[in-house]
Amino acid sequence: MEAAYLTLVTQEGHEVSVDSRLQSLSSLLQHLIADSSPQSTIHLPSLSSAVLYKIVEYYEHHHYTTPPPIKKPLPSDRIEEAVRDPWDAEFINALSEDCLVSVTLACYEMELFGLFDLCSGKIASMFKGKTIDELRQKYGITEEFTAEEEERLKKEYPWALEGNEDRLLQTRHTR
Fold it and tell me: Which element (helix H / strand E) includes 34?
């Protein structure tokens, strides 16, 4: 049986043929294909060719299935300890930070939650165990939250401070 392909057009205007099984993993592709003629190309103006190739590489390795989710909570700041397939750790660790963010955003938009889970885990591992001062220095953050902003964030994202509120308070008092 011959494999079926989709033609996706990236933001650079490149036409890229991808295995049609990618459609079954992406709600966005399913909706776009349902809204178009069977042989038409699918335009993805926010997706770069480089990011699309990374997405395809990942799903080709996993035979266009969603792999098991990573371990949560993360056991450490090493993504290798959270994945079941060592290839996943090699793949995600090889991405630059900019590429990691781009792939994460693309997977979120395309609703490709297997790779999104891995990307999110990698980002979380980069933050795990770091103090707020270390993160501020690494990312060049100089602004302070107002007390109101901080309270709003604590309410909106309570999971972000799991066990770390004391560290947050200590950091604030050392400035």
Answer: helix 27-34
For the segment 70-118, what is each residue's pLDDT rounded down to a tens digit?
A: 999 999 999 999 999 999 999 999 999 999 999 999 999 999 999 999 9
What's the Cα-to-Cα distance from 61 to each of 87, 114, 124, rounded to whole Å?
9, 12, 23
Both tokens of 102, joined, read 């781009």
Cβ pair 114, 57 in contact under 8 A: no
What does the H/E/C string look like for 41-102? CEECCCCCHHHHHHHHHHHHHCCCCCCCCCCCCCCCCCHHHCCCCHHHHHHHHCCCHHHHHH
Q: Give me the amino acid identity at 23.
A: Q
Q: Where in the chain is the domain with CATH 3.30.710.10?
A: 5-127
* Alpha-carbon gap, residue 102 to 115, rounded angstroms: 12
CATH class of 5-127: alpha beta
